[in-house]
Amino acid sequence: MKHNIFARAAGLAAISAITLGAGTALAKDAITIAVPSFLTGGAAGPFGIPAMNGAKMVADAINAGKLPAPYDSKGFGGATATVEPIDEGGGATKQVAEYRNLVEKRGVDVIVGYISSGNCQALAPIAEELKQFTIFATCGTPRIFEEAPRKYVFRTMGHATADNVAAAMYVKEKYPDLKGYTGINQNYAWGQDSWRDFDLTLKQIMPNSTASDKTQFPKIFAGQYGSEISAMSLDKADLIHTSFWGGDLEAFIFQGNARGLFKQKIGVFTVGGTAAYRLGKKLPDGLVLGARGPYGILVRYRDSALNQWFVSTYKNLYGTYPSGPAYQYGQAILAAKIAYDKAGSDASDEALGDALRGITFESFSTTVEMSLGGGHQAVTENGYGITKYDDENGENVVTDVKFYPGSCIMPPEGVNSVDWIKGGMKGAKC
């Protein structure tokens, strides 16, 4: 049984409630939030640690009542939250076992996190089986809610279709005479789907531009991309698309720099924002840079009380500006607060889901609409800019930033992403 380790405590609480009078319920004064993220391996530095930092920072501020309005009330429905870090490494099989342990043996109240699309795909049906309220923070595959209806699973940011449709639209605006393009993406669902959506969109909006027949799908987490870089250097394509992330992304940048790849080709990095603050001058000028939504370097100067608080607090705590994963995990923790504030600290998993389903809320850097997947999948804007190193201030910046509304780059409710793109993106509100 779920939360079985608290059976005795629940019994004592019931006795106490009786002594207070019939029908009186005791609100919980503490909850545990399990937060899975990559804490080891190549994804930890660029993705996992910033994500965990963002989650802890926001949870601590909520506990203390120090978020800007309208989230300045203390706690999660009044309860104090303990964040329990979980290492997401080891693959989907390990994560499924860990998830069951968190729910069935350790009795955590809510699970917020996950970066890997593969992990989220494997865990979504487990969450439904165990009836555990779960908020996916970052993982990008659109399959989570397009392949099956969900009751207990939510995702508080846009999925990868938005990343790649927005990238294609940005390319059309910046490089209208583009003749050919290629790509290098990981050989699993995330990379395959990202390339598919980018390619399909360009075929729709730039029919005179041709995809290379030598697109690269290296072995998962290969780390060495010399042969792929050589092949792309010889390819006639003018532009390279990649959804590389974490250690793969940084390895590709270093190795591409050494071979002059980014001086020859236009680079479109849909997850490149995580490298902006880490790599300094090693990040090439002129890359088309995304952050999987309105996060990180793309929104550093966005003028709102919530964003100013997020940027300044993160910088003071961790000595660097927040990247996309910090925003994404912080946003998911904020959604947990909203659900608990609406449903109550003692709410059931079903009631928490009812509280989050279909709502619209202001996050740190954007408006989040839970409007797809039956109210379980978020829609947000998505943006891109061009990298440039600012010698005067000694840091990377992005220029020519443009954001596309979520209604422009994500399919309407009930429409599969692939079918929507192939059908000419009917109903897009751009």
Can you walk through the features of this model?
The protein is α/β, with parallel strands linked by helices. It folds into two domains: 4-160 and 306-379, 3-Layer(aba) Sandwich (Rossmann fold); 161-301 and 381-422, Response regulator (Rossmann fold), CATH 3.40.50.2300. The chain has helices spanning 7-20, 44-64, 92-105, 117-130, 143-146, 160-174, 189-205, 226-234, 246-258, 261-264, 276-279, 305-318, 324-343, 349-356, 406-409, 417-422, and strands spanning 30-37, 80-87, 110-113, 134-136, 153-155, 180-183, 210-211, 239-242, 266-269, 288-290, 360-362, 367-372, 377-379, 382-390, 395-404. The strands form three sheets. It has a seven-stranded mixed beta sheet with strand order 7-6-8-9-10-14-15. A hairpin with a 4-residue loop joins strand 12 and strand 13 (377-379). The longest helix has 21 residues, at 44-64.
Short description:
It contains 16 helices and 15 strands. The protein has 430 residues and is of the alpha/beta class. The strands form 3 sheets. A 7-stranded mixed β-sheet has the order 7-6-8-9-10-14-15. A 5-stranded parallel β-sheet has the order 2-1-3-4-5, sandwiched between helices.
